[in-house]
Write a structure and sequence with these properties.
Distance between the termini of chain A: 57 Å
Helix content of chain A: over 70%
CATH topology of chain A: Helix Hairpins
Strand content of chain B: under 5%
Number of domains of chain A: 1
Order of helices and strands of chain B: HHHEEHHHHHHHHHHHHHHHH
Structural class of chain A: mainly alpha
Number of strands of chain A: 0
CATH architecture of chain A: Orthogonal Bundle
Number of domains of chain B: 1
Largest interface: A-B, 47 and 47 residues
Order of helices and strands of chain A: HHH
Radius of gyration of chain B: 23 Å
CATH class of chain A: Mainly Alpha
Oligomer: heterodimer
Strand order of the largest sheet of chain B: 1-2
Radius of gyration of chain A: 17 Å
Structural class of chain B: mainly alpha
Largest sheet of chain B: 2 strands, antiparallel
Helix content of chain B: over 70%
Strand content of chain A: under 5%
Chain lengths: 102, 538
């Protein structure tokens, strides 16, 4: 028996929630960025599942291809910024980013 | 369809689309040119800021020509370009022109204050131009894919620009905070898009309301219908991403940190341009969803929700600005407050557009968009003016604290007068442009009060906040004008006849003109509003 749309959406939702929890709880900058990747991939699973089961069609697959490329671009910039932060603070703990407040 | 037919239709479509995409292509060409010039060592002969200025000038001119061409026809012309991914109408062209002009002014400011040094300027201007193209895509998006690409294309260069001052601790901290929150918001937004697009079975924004009406027709129409409920959830997640870009409460916390860490030039750019792009997108997205039969009351509550967020945002922004000692941080909170005022216009638009009498309210619907556009134009000049004064004074005092501006009137009266004009306009005092902008927005929100009484509360909050905001702007002005300059303060010798003065005075003159002669701009804004608001309901 083939799994229906709902099974895929469930996987997507679980990935999304894991990602959000990861973003909210991780104190390590790289860990937060990994949470973002989980969220993006949760959305990708949704897109591909919708494109298989609804009239979204190939749009969904194209969308997820674009998201993969954009995620790579974003990760490149984010890692460069994280490295810059490390060079200035000698840590990647986001809680240490506390100079700016008020 | 035969393969050759497909190729032929693509070729026709692309050749028809490219002339309408000229502004973006011009900016892209400038980016490539700047990078190639460094490769060949030509940038030692021709500095990158010159190339950037020429590129931005040509882009502004092209956008002006496009607007003229659309303007000449009486009817509202809407063309879908690139197989319907983007839409070309007066609204798009208005934003293109607005952003190109703002880019030109920012390039002029950065070459005056010299914030990217000779070595880094090709990188900096490439990021700046790339972000501007992203904003233009946001304002012309007609597909959920373009919505996401536009947001990402704006955000990613912005992260890098905030962290551009590499050796500074605060700058790297600001960039890290911005990128972490921004990436998270973009991810949440994408998940929302997947729900909206998946349930409605299309990513084409011009089909969204039709599909929503079909989805609502099957069930009870309200939130009890599972399809409508999922779309509402998805829309809320998309709104998280947009609210982040607009720095609305509760997604505002990145804004003060990013602005304080970034240089004043970059902060000025982000505060106006990325907000403008996001507002263009917000209006398009809201209009794409509204007007569907069976979901009117849902969309009105969505509009009222936006109104509620607008009230909270303006109040929070104005109250938090009181205690700030850093001018950039103070202006960041003022930016948050102003985003709130502008969201009031979008809330009014949604309430009016989905009211039962929407057919008789077309004039008012136009006016709410017109008010938003007018406010954005005024905001461009007044906010850039304030940030420019900070940037210029920083080059002499090496500080952006309010205290470093003590008694500045005795040394550079021009800067002080311009700051006075900009800040009074930010408060919304006549005869400056900010007054007219606020008037337009409050008038349309007041009109929306006839549909739902809560909008009166929104207007009351707006008016009350205008009074609140007076206090902290006046505090800065008092420091500049009435206190004595400390003897050990570094001098700020900006003479009346200098490029710096000419730049800030030009901005101030536009703020004044927009206040005294509102019809100069409001007609243009109204044309742009008509193009987008008058699409037929399904």
């Amino acid at each position: 028996m083939a799994a229906g749309l709902n099974a895929y959406l469930l996987v997507g939702a679980v990935l999304f929630v894991c990602g959000v929890i990861c973003m909210a709880t991780k104190r390590n900058g790289i860990g937060v960025l990994m949470g973002v990747e989980l969220v993006l991939n949760g959305a990708n699973v949704n897109f591909v599942a919708f494109s298989r089961y609804t009239d979204l069609g190939l749009d969904g697959q194209i969308f997820s291809l674009f998201v993969i490329v954009l995620a790579a671009a974003e990760a490149a910039v984010a890692l460069a910024i994280a490295l810059n932060f490390y060079n200035n603070h000698l840590t990647i703990d986001v809680d240490r980013a506390n100079k700016l407040k008020g | 369809m035969l393969f050759t037919d497909l190729i032929n239709s693509l070729i026709t479509d692309t050749t028809q689309s490219i002339p309408r995409f000229g502004v973006e292509l011009c900016l892209s060409a400038t980016i490539v040119l700047m990078l190639l010039m460094r490769l060949s060592g030509l940038d030692r002969l021709i500095p990158a800021c010159l190339t950037a200025t020429v590129g931005a000038l040509v882009a502004t001119f092209l956008a002006y020509k496009q607007f003229d061409a659309l303007h000449a026809k009486d009817a509202v012309v809407t063309t879908h370009i690139f197989t319907g991914l983007l839409v070309h109408d007066s609204f798009t062209v208005f934003f293109r022109g607005f952003l190109a002009l703002f880019l030109l002014l920012t390039v002029a400011l950065t070459s005056l204050t010299g914030i990217p040094d000779e070595e880094d300027s090709p990188d900096f201007y490439s990021l700046l131009f790339g972000a501007t193209i992203g904003m233009m895509l946001m304002a012309s998006a007609n597909n959920l894919l373009m919505l996401f690409i536009g947001v990402e294309m704006t955000s990613v260069p912005s992260y890098a620009m905030v962290g551009f001052l590499k050796g500074r601790k605060v700058s790297s901290e600001a960039a890290l905070k911005y990128v972490v929150y921004g990436a998270g918001a973009a991810g949440v937004m994408l998940y929302g898009i997947s729900l909206v697009g998946g349930v409605l079975g299309t990513t084409d924004m011009s089909l969204l309301s039709q599909r929503l009406a079909e989805a609502a027709a099957g069930g009870s129409g309200g939130l009890k219908d599972p399809e409508v409920r999922t779309v509402a959830l998805g829309t809320m997640l998309v709104m998280v991403g947009l609210a982040f870009k607009l720095s609305l409460v509760p997604f505002h916390f990145w804004c003060p940190d990013a602005f304080e860490g970034a240089s004043a030039e970059v902060a000025g750019f982000l505060s106006v341009a990325s907000k403008a792009g996001a507002f263009g997108l917000l209006v398009r997205f809201c209009l794409a969803l509204s007007g569907a039969k069976g979901t009117e009351s849902l969309m009105i509550s969505f509009g009222l929700g936006l109104g509620f967020i607008a009230c909270i945002t303006t109040t929070f922004g104005n109250l938090a600005a009181y205690t700030q000692t850093n001018l950039k941080r103070l202006l960041a909170y003022s930016t948050i407050a102003h985003a709130g005022y502008m969201v009031m216009a979008v809330a009014a638009l949604l309430v009016l557009k989905n009211s039962p009498q929407a057919a008789t309210l077309t004039e008012n619907i136009n006016q709410s968009i017109e008010g938003l556009l007018y406010y954005l134009v005024v905001y461009l000049f007044m906010n850039l003016g304030a940030f420019a004064v900070i940037a210029i004074a920083r080059n002499y005092t090496f500080s952006e604290e309010v205290d470093s501006f003590k008694g500045l009137i005795s040394q550079s009266p021009t800067l002080c007068i311009v700051m006075l004009i900009c800040m009074f306009s930010l408060v919304g005092m006549p005869p400056f442009g900010g007054f007219v902008g606020k008037l337009f927005i409050f008038a349309s929100a007041f009109k929306a009060g006839e549909v739902h009484g809560f909008m009166y509360v929104v207007v009351a909050f707006g008016a009350l906040n205008t009074v609140f905001s007076l206090v902290y702007y006046i505090r800065v002005l008092r420091t500049m004008f009435l206190e004595a300059r400390p003897a050990d303060a570094r001098p700020v010798p900006v003479r009346l006849v200098s490029w710096e003065s000419a730049f800030v005075v030009t901005l101030a003159v536009f703020v004044l003109l927009l206040g005294v002669l509102p019809h100069m701009m409001s007609q243009t804004a109204n044309d742009a509003a008509q193009a987008i608001a008058q699409l037929p309901n399904p």
